[in-house]
Amino acid sequence: MTVARSVADVLSDHVTLEVECIDRMYLNLYVPKLQYASGIVGFFKYHRGFPFVSSALMDPMTRGFVAGIEKFVQREGVDLVSFEKGRRKDDVAHEYLADFDGDEGVLFVGKAQEKTSLFRTEKRRNPETGATYPWIVRTTAMVNHYYFYCVDRDFGPFFIKFCSYFPYNARLCLNGNEWAKRQATMAGLEFEPLDNGFSSCEDPKKLQRISFSALRVGDLGSSR
């Protein structure tokens, strides 16, 4: 009787190097008190000094934030790329990375509309007087997000994504495999890289020690 082989069994016959390392790691960047409606109200009333709170107060801040990004793009001479629907952002980044010959810097800034959680104003009515008043509520909407694709001397390629709408939450994405490549190079370790891992290495044990020291948080993935 022939027993069917699993995918893991088949792959094990072709694996020549196995290294455990953090793959992509996402770090959320935000101000905790600005993640709920009462915190938003407190910010505009007690920090900004407004007698009432409306999402209209966020609009000039948003326009200023976006203008600051556009000024940065112009000043630094980097491209502002509108991501096309259906095209992978990583593919665009790889094209820019292939032409980048510096040690570290900004590759380009990308822009894409994405659904996100944010705060809007809705009108409510006082049941006793009948007067209307603005009320901050959490909702979702499609807004522009800006991706700063960069290269760091120690961490390699990474990106920071900013929401263009108040409170401008952001996300940092690092790649443990890219970090390990940079550290292995600086340690003089010879290896054959893959797009997101390693094909071969002269000293797998040393590479594994480097990979384990990458960032000691998150789940471990495998580079094969």
How would you describe this protein?
There is one protein chain. The chain is α+β, with helices and mostly antiparallel strands and 224 residues long. The protein has two domains: 1-27 and 175-224, no CATH class; 31-168, no CATH class. 29% of the residues lie in helices and 36% in strands. It has six helices and ten strands. A six-stranded mixed β-sheet has the order 2-7-6-5-4-3. It has a two-stranded antiparallel sheet with strand order 1-10. Strands 8-9 form a two-stranded antiparallel sheet. It is elongated and about 80 Å long. The chain starts with 6 loop residues before the first helix and ends with a strand. 19% of the residues are buried. Residues 217-224 have low confidence and may be disordered.
